[in-house]
Write a structure and sequence with these properties.
Helices cover 41% and strands 14% of the residues. It is an alpha/beta fold.
Length: 433
């Protein structure tokens, strides 16, 4: 091309959670039976959407207004409902104008980072959900600025290190936290959240909190929403219905803006995000319209409670099965529906492999490993595990970290099937190392 057309951050956009599906498709063509543990889609994993949710959606779909544009910021009645719901918790108060709807949180994430000044950075956890780290890096055109989550302390943020990295990097304008966390399933105690808020206040930053799993905190774990701890610090909370209902295909998420009037730059920045949404006209109408009806339904709380209880059982099953393996470090999951396994330092090498019975599959995997050049050691394990057992997990290094391991889901509704999968993981790791 006569002029450069590639965005400065194009090379930072990578999503291994979906990329591995290309390998899966090739293996399926060779006759492999695959167990997908890479994508957090409860419905695809076999969870049944309750009839009462389907009836609410069906009735709403019979109304003509469900097929029309809604206000660019989102359905007013739903924004009013969500603002009131937030305000009942205490903390930062909002109204309908402080809420903006998007076509899923992926849309919200790209806008929140995309409309930052290029030299302004958001410091992100490591490991962290790929959409955040890739979008933040793409907006700046350089790798992410990160702070560590500590696998030796329940995957909690290392707030001492966070403060240091904020102090000595003046480009940092905001802090990202994900609570409950993806990929680790950690749930952050109130005192850690308040420490992060204090760092933001001390250095005049804003906070982004991805709270898509906020209603999937297991019994016994305690945390707070950003609104409850943020005080006077400007902030953005990201929420949605894709995990809680579950309805990932709705592509319906929203952000809540806290204390936007307290800082002129933050107010102008968040207005630019709304302006970008207005250029698109609006987000999908139907899912927005049914949110109050579903959340207020008498069966909703019990339904979510049963799902949380099942995920907690799966977490305990996986933890108790894998904890005695000497080559790994594993923590209990306290929220969301993921678990991360960390290989101890020095355990993995390029000399390791797993036996693959199908010669065509073995040839394919070996050729992929050779053609990819120098790939991470945990990705190498993931490829061998996939080819040898059919279990598809995601390498931990793809979540913007140097740590080596993998993430799997707790979603299988069949507890016996889940236990078989976890036993397969255990046997695969033992055989590999």
């Amino acid at each position: 091309m006569r002029t450069e057309i590639v965005h400065i951050g194009a090379g930072e956009l990578n999503y291994e959670i979906r990329n591995i599906m290309r390998v899966v498709d090739k293996l399926k063509a060779l006759g492999a039976d695959i167990n997908l543990e890479n994508i957090g889609d409860p419905v695809a994993k076999g969870e049944k959407v309750p009839v009462w949710i389907k009836e609410i959606v069906s009735r709403a779909s019979m109304e003509d207004c469900a097929y029309s544009y809604c206000p660019s910021q989102g359905v007013l009645e739903t924004r009013e409902y969500l603002a009131e719901r937030n305000n009942r918790l205490g903390g930062a108060r909002i109204d309908a104008d402080d809420i903006i709807f998007f076509n899923g949180l992926g849309d919200a994430i790209t806008k929140v980072y995309g409309f930052l000044r290029r030299t302004a950075r958001i410091i992100t956890p490591s490991p962290t959900y790929t959409t955040h780290s890739s979008s933040e890096a793409a907006h700046a055109g350089v790798p992410p600025v990160t702070y560590p989550l500590d696998p030796h302390h329940h995957w909690y943020p290392d707030t001492v290190e966070l403060r240091k990295r904020v102090k000595y990097n003046p480009a940092v304008a905001g802090i990202l936290l994900i609570n409950p966390d993806n990929p680790t399933g950690a749930v952050y105690p109130e005192e850690i959240l308040r420490e992060i808020v204090q760092i933001a206040e001390d250095y005049d930053l804003f906070i982004i909190a991805d709270e898509i799993y906020q209603n999937l905190v297991f019994e016994g774990a305690r945390t707070r929403t950003l609104a409850e701890v943020i005080g006077h610090v400007p902030g953005i909370a990201m929420k949605g219905i894709s995990k809680e209902l579950p309805w990932p295909g709705s592509r319906c998420g929203w952000i809540e803006l806290y204390n936007r009037e307290r800082d002129p730059a933050f107010k102008t920045y968040t207005q630019s995000i709304l302006n970008a949404k207005m250029v698109e006209v609006c987000s999908t109408t139907l899912p927005q319209k049914v949110i109050p009806l579903i959340f207020d339904h008498p069966e909703h709380e019990a339904y979510v409670g049963k799902r949380k209880a099942r995920y907690k059982r799966m977490s305990e099953t996986a933890f108790n099965t894998l904890k005695e393996i000497p080559s790994i470090l594993i923590n209990r999951t306290n929220g969301a529906f993921y678990m991360s396994v960390l290989f101890r330092e020095g355990v993995l090498s390029t000399r390791q492999s797993l036996p693959i019975e199908n010669a065509n599959i073995r040839s394919l995997i070996e050729s992929l490993l050779q053609s990819n050049g120098k790939i991470s050691l945990d990705k190498r394990f993931v490829y061998y595990l996939l080819a040898a057992t059919g279990v598809c997990v995601v390498p931990l290094s793809s979540f913007n970290t140097d740590l080596q391991g993998f993430r799997f889901t707790l979603l299988d509704p069949d507890e016996y099937s889940f236990l078989r999968m976890v036993n397969t993981l255990a046997e695969g790791m033992k055989a590999y190392v």
